[in-house]
Amino acid sequence: MPEMLAGAEPLTLDLLQPDPLGVLTTTRLVVAESIYVSISRGAIEGLAPALARARSLPPAWPRDRHFFDGTEKTVNWLLLLDALNFSFWGDPPWRVTYQGETHDGYWALVLALRRAVEEGHPLWDAGYLAEMSLPTLAHILRGENEIPLLPRRWEIVREVGQVLRERYGGQFARAVEAAGRSAVRLVLQVVHDFPSFYDVADWQGREVRFFKRAQILVADLYGAFQGQAWGEFHDLDQLTAFADYKLPQVLRRFDILVYRPDLAQKVDHRFVFPPRSREEVEIRASTIWAVEWLRRELANHGRQLRAFEIDWWLWNEGQRSSGADHPYHLVRTTDY
């Protein structure tokens, strides 16, 4: 274990239940061999009692901000949303103004896609997505400055439409139904059928799974449909945290994640890490296990929460970050 934990009761890497997604199983190899990132047991134990008493946990899924009509159109819209849910950072940032509100990051994407629907773009139509032109997508995502990786996003939009047409008769709801209310089966189906969702890194010749956007898609379906219809899943406890760049920033604020000085210096000076570099993989793997250990500690205090619910809380905390926060790590990637 990291030397900062010397003398303390070690954090266990044991799996407490089967891991059909393989995310905890493969990321624990990284955590066990981590040299850049440590997870503080003391910080987890210090945060858990107050967090266990928090009435705001888990936060509600903000249906009012998203497009939602309760039909299969919403299912396809959410698929598109999470297919494009990555890499918003930039200097200057991409921003979208909608109904007098200006947002950047994820919320800018939500508002841009909602605005597009209101302007008559059928973003739930597989044929429309499969044949979309780059200028059309640029118009849909128009705002202050250009969204990063616009050409790659265009390829992904077309991929979504093509896979919907070829495999699901144009409706992602068919995939949800075929999964038999299993979050695990749906995640694995998504990463198999949509190449852009295949979020897997190499760790010294071993596969490390994160499946960030595929997992968040399932959680979004659950949140949007409030656990009913296409949002009903019996195994949501199998989901892990969605390893991105905001969660580790918040975990670092709480001293749960501790970076080795050279890594901390790189992050704080906004060094751009290569995708799936050792430092990035350690940060993401440690994020997943930090949330898992926090989940277990909350259970010790009588609060039973699922990892994705803790993720939602951490992400919302990240939206309220103060100027005292360290920067988040930078990677130009489609994974998150």
Structure overview:
With 336 residues, the protein is mainly alpha-helical. The chain has one domain (3-331). It is 48% helix and 8% strand. The protein has helices at residues 23-32, 41-52, 72-83, 105-118, 126-130, 134-140, 150-168, 172-178, 183-193, 212-224, 246-253, 261-268, 278-300, 307-319; strands at residues 37-39, 95-98, 101-104, 200-203, 206-209, 257-259, 272-273, 330-331. A two-stranded antiparallel sheet has the order 1-6. A two-stranded antiparallel sheet has the order 2-3.
Write the layout of secondary structure elements.
Layout lengths: L22 H10 L4 E3 L1 H12 L19 H12 L11 E4 L2 E4 H14 L7 H5 L3 H7 L9 H19 L3 H7 L4 H11 L6 E4 L2 E4 L2 H13 L21 H8 L3 E3 L1 H8 L3 E2 L4 H23 L6 H13 L10 E2 L5
Parallel strand pairs: 7-8
Antiparallel strand pairs: 1-6, 2-3, 4-5
